[in-house]
Amino acid sequence: MKHWAQNGLKALTSACVLSMMATVAWSQSLTWLGTLGGDVSAAYGVSNNGVVVGWAGNAAGQYRAFRWTASGGMQDLGTLGGDVSAAYGVSADGAVVVGYAYNAAGDTRAFRWTVDGGMQDLGTLSGRASTAYGVSADGAVVVGWDRNAAGRLRAFRWTAEGGMQDLGTLPGGCCSYAYGVSADGAVVVGMARNAAGRERAFRWTAGGGMQDLGTLGGDSSEALGVSADGAVVVGRARNAAGELRPFRWTPDGGMEDLNITYASLLTNGSWLVWAFVSPDGRYIAGYGYNAATRRYEAFLLDTEPRCTTHNGDVDANGCVDDADLLAVLFAFGNTGSNLGRVDVNCDGVVDDADLLIVLFNFGSGC
Predict the structure, then answer these.
(1) pTM, to two decimals
(2) Which domain does 350 fall in, by range?
(3) Strand order in 27-32's β-sheet?
């Protein structure tokens, strides 16, 4: 709706203009998460309740997997006996975390972490290295990559009962990596090389195999996360200028650049690089440049619009006048959670209370 309002107001009726202006008032938020005492961090996963996981530098200069909550901040999840770890996925309730960690022998191993059990080594397909990137809503299905018997890097899907399953690759390609999985474990997303050797984001199902999701105009892309229903895919892709940019993909809309979609939330000089999505599709977390601190940091983007109370200036032009009064009258009696500025007091219904606020402040700012 914002896009239409910015590019097509002159062609719309006054009623449509008022209706669309009413949607622009809703607010969103962006929070930078800091580090574990070092100078860098990156988020790779976020739960339905806003638990974020990723990796961050500690005071000793080591990279460690973290689990972040609004109340407790960043928690270092440790390792499997080595020096390095990173968390890439989290269950819907934030209780199960997956990623990789070095073991005592210096081998990279996929892990599954819980509060009570700590880190569990998930093993490999046949080699010495594996990495877990995504986990289903209930924490039972884990996806990532490992080497198959032929030494090729392949996406895997892990369950406690079946162990690791090789998901193959795009037709003619050599390699694949799985980064995310739907709530029920049926849809897997990641990156695979096509017959031309180009990296492409994919969406996999048991019935359909791997689907190439394209790019943002450049030569590569990779899918890093998927919503609970498997319909929304996010990740990073190169644009026509060769820059890495975060994307959100849907079957109807294809790929969109999140720096463009949420440009209004970014301070001048800041940009986002890659993204992951919560199971419900509301939260997007990732990695970007924060111009305020002049460093790359993890970010949390809340994409759900929320109502903001105001003084009756429905069209946000600085003046409470007839246009605002008409907007409220036109929407009078409407109910819902996404009414926009016509719901002046944000109680979920356009009624006498909203009308009275407009009348009380009539003429203000004019």
Answers:
(1) 0.61
(2) 2-24+309-360
(3) 27-32, 295-306, 283-290, 271-277
